[in-house]
Predict the structure of PadR family transcriptional regulator.
Amino acid sequence: MKLSEQSYLVLLALTEGPTHGYGIITSVRRLSEDKVKLGAGTLYGALDRLGDQGLVEAAGEEVVNGRNRRYYRLTGQGHAVLAAETERMARLADLAHRLLNPGPRPQPGGA
């Protein structure tokens, strides 16, 4: 299953353990070196889709300063999909490195 960059980073953030929405947002920023900044609407839309696919699930709630804070965790299937996508991207990156840095090419005429 191919994941969008945002979904990939959300799943990667959840490898650190159950996390609430704001924690996921800050982890995604850190993991992406501040290149991906999720808004709340984008994050919760992604969590809904990932939940529908069985990749994440709710992991409890707590009340903090009078507001509900829901925690999410990676499922076993989510871990497997994340691992497979990581392998796919690593193979693609390896191919790109080889194509961009081909090394010496044989000279015409066998020289």
In short: The longest strand covers residues 56-64. The beta strands are 19-20, 56-64, 67-74. The chain has one domain: 5-101.
